[in-house]
Write a structure and sequence with these properties.
Helix content: 40-55%
Mean pLDDT: 91
CATH topology of the largest domain: Rossmann fold
Number of helices: 19
Oligomer: single chain
CATH superfamily of the largest domain: 3-Deoxy-D-manno-octulosonic-acid transferase, N-terminal domain
CATH class of the largest domain: Alpha Beta
Distance between the termini: 34 Å
Low-confidence stretches: none
């Protein structure tokens, strides 16, 4: 099986190589860590003298949710070592900042030689995957070493579950080798069971993302950002975060209309992908709007308070959400991405707005809307109306934000339940390994 998979991967890689080469040359993507991913080369690890847990998050979002899981695991199990891996450049940068005292490595491509080499170097006693990233060669190699693999904060939407059921003959190769799935909610847990996962291997924790959000608008990080962006009392700040094409253009068109009606209106754009920063900057200028890029400020406070602010740095959206009176959460208008994390602005008490496509956060989005903690819009025209109403009506804005914040804080506790599930799994046998 590994050799057939290697042949399949090499064939796909060969077919995609012209496009990948073009993207690597023009954008810089896919180059960093390429050799390490392809060969499984990692920094030399000393042979473990005690158990080692390997935590993996694909990109920035998954690394964020792992912060509290890893912190709680280390506090609970000080006799274990921990290693963190990630797939993307931005995820790697975020992981090195979030875990400065832990080894951070790139997750290998799913070639048998790369997987084998990394596992031989790390020698984990436990592998924890945040939400996803299941690859057959990796799972087969972990199984051959008798290393349990756990998916935490697991989510499986109805759409994904339908695809898995159609390819059950193939996906069973993955799921039969996952030791435990700790799902976010009962609906996701049921979807796992319906695609053939043994019910005894599925537990429910709630979403870890409720635990990992900041909620203090006066924290040091938020206050520093407030001063840097020169946000003053009386300003009404509209933050559009984790945006994708064409959401920035939609937001700019709405902003041009609303700033004539809303005094003190400020717009902050935070695109999801760093390779689009220049594209969005050009877009702002072509709309005839003044622009200030966050990277140009360094530590000098902004002077042009009428300019659109483009946050072209990584890892600062969490602090920027703390400035928002109204927060539009991107990836939700075009029907391709399934939304981004709306819990962060909700925890700060911002008035949260998102589009119709939020299947990645279906449960959280549904609860926020049902309980009056967020507004879901169908299209750009509805977005304009909702943002105008919220910016103009301070009472409605405050009610929405207060409800959202209360809901998020009430749902916390998933990290504790996740750790209890890991404890149940590792049991006395692995604890004695230390």
């Amino acid at each position: 099986m590994p050799y057939l998979l290697n042949l399949l991967y090499l064939s796909v890689l060969f077919l995609l190589s012209p496009w990948l080469g073009y993207k690597a040359l023009t954008t810089g993507k896919y180059r960093r860590g390429l050799w390490a991913k392809f060969t499984g080369t990692v920094s030399l690890f000393p042979p473990p003298v005690r158990p080692r847990a390997w935590f993996h998050g694909v990109s920035v979002g998954e690394i964020h949710l792992l912060r509290q899981v890893i912190a709680a695991f280390r506090q609970r199990h000080p006799d274990w070592d921990c290693v963190v891996s990630t797939t993307t450049d931005t995820g790697f940068d975020e992981a090195t900042k979030a875990f400065p005292d832990l080894p951070v490595i790139f997750y290998p491509f799913d070639f048998s030689w790369a997987v084998r080499r990394v596992l031989n170097a790390v020698r984990p006693s436990l592998i924890v995957l945040a939400e996803s990233e299941l690859w057959p060669n990796f799972l087969l190699a972990a199984e051959s070493r008798d290393v349990p693999v756990v998916v935490v904060n697991g989510r499986l939407s109805p759409r994904s579950a339908a695809r898995h059921r159609r390819l059950r003959w193939l996906t069973r190769l993955l799921w039969d080798r996952v030791t435990l799935i700790v799902a976010q909610n009962p609906e996701y847990a049921e979807n796992y069971r319906r695609i053939g996962v043994n019910p005894r291997r599925v537990l429910i924790s709630g979403s870890v993302k409720f635990d990992g959000v900041a909620a203090d608008r006066h924290s040091e990080r938020v206050e520093k950002m407030r001063q840097l962006l020169a946000v003053r009392p009386g300003d009404r700040v509209w933050v559009c975060g984790s945006t994708q094409t064409p959401e920035e253009e939609i937001a700019l068109d709405v902003f041009r209309k609303l700033r004539e009606e809303i005094s003190g209106l400020r717009l902050v754009l935070v695109p999801r992908q760093k390779d689009r920063f220049d594209e969005v900057a050009d877009m702002v200028r072509k709309k005839g709007l003044r622009l200030v890029r966050r990277s140009s400020l360094k530590d000098t406070p902004l002077s042009d308070r009428d300019a659109v602010i483009l946050v072209d740095t990584i890892g600062e959206l969490g602090a920027v959400w703390g400035l928002a009176d109204v927060a539009f959460v991107g990836g939700s208008l075009d029907g391709k991405r399934g939304g981004q994390n709306m819990l962060e602005p909700a925890a700060y008490g911002a008035a949260v707005v998102f589009g119709p496509h939020v299947w990645n956060f279906r449960d959280a989005a549904g609860r926020l809307v049902r309980e009056g903690g967020a507004v879901q819009v169908a299209d750009p025209a509805a977005l304009e109306g909702a943002v105008l109403e919220l910016l103009a009506d301070s009472r409605k804005r405050k009610t929405l934000g207060t409800t959202a914040r209360r809901l998020v804080l009430a749902q916390q506790g998933a990290t504790q339940r996740t750790l209890e599930a890991l404890d149940f799994l590792i049991g006395p046998r692995l604890r004695r390994a230390g």
